[in-house]
Amino acid sequence: MCPAIVSISAKSGTGKTTLVVKLIAELKQRGYKVGAIKHHAHNFTMDCEGKDSWRFTQAGADTMMITSQDKLAIIKQNPDQQEPPVLESIERYFGDMDIVITEGFKKNKFPKIEVHRKECGDKLLYRDDAYDPTLIAVASDSKLQVDVPVFDLNDAKTICDFIENSFLKS
Questions:
Q1: Greater model confidence, 74 or 103
Q2: CATH number of the domain where residue 163 is located
Q3: How far apart are the first and last CA of the chain?
Q4: How far apart are CA 61 and CA 44, in angstroms?
């Protein structure tokens, strides 16, 4: 069985990882089994203090995976030297999770919450330059007029309420 999947996407430097860590911790507190997958475009090192993968596991992720074209990790070498499709990774490694939060897969077809900071520009990735129907919400530090719910970027509890009501409660 495939778990619920929610992607946190944004421009670089907007606070995606900070939000993912808060969402993992809040979902864990609510009793869910949470997986996290971070896309990494280059070679990477796992579990160094302060790195995103370390932060995810410190937040309580039951399964932690990072993928790139060179490696995939739960730490496992990737002999194909090509990044596997994210859905294939989720189906293979996260079947026992209630939810998987992905970070950095900007072009996937999963439900997306875009992180937006006013200081990083006014445009949204999934509404201003191109319309992406998979955008389900925006987490922002400013008021926005958009056709999906906009949440306070620092209010992980309300964002988790939205995720829980949309994907985890039948």
A1: 103
A2: 3.40.50.300
A3: 15
A4: 19
Would you state the structure tokens that stand for residue 17, as one six-digit string?
A: 């990882």
In whole angstroms, give the CA distance from residue 7 to residue 153: 15
What is the radius of gyration, based on Cα positions, of the chain? 15
Mean pLDDT value of segment 39-44: 69
Q: Are 65 and 35 in contact (CB under 8 A)?
A: yes
How does DSSP classify residue 166?
I
Task: Output phi, psi for 74, to 5 deg.
Answer: -145, 70
Instruction: Match 């499709």 to its residue by tokens.
Output: 85
Residue labelled with tokens 């950095």: 104
Q: The pTM is what? A: 0.81
Q: What is the pLDDT of residue 77?
A: 47
Answer for the pair 3, 99: CB distance below 8 angstroms, yes or no.
yes
Average pLDDT on 58-85 reads 75
What's the domain count of the chain?
1
Q: Which domain holds residue 142?
A: 4-168
pLDDT digits (tens, 9 = 90+) for 16-40: 999 999 999 999 999 999 999 988 7
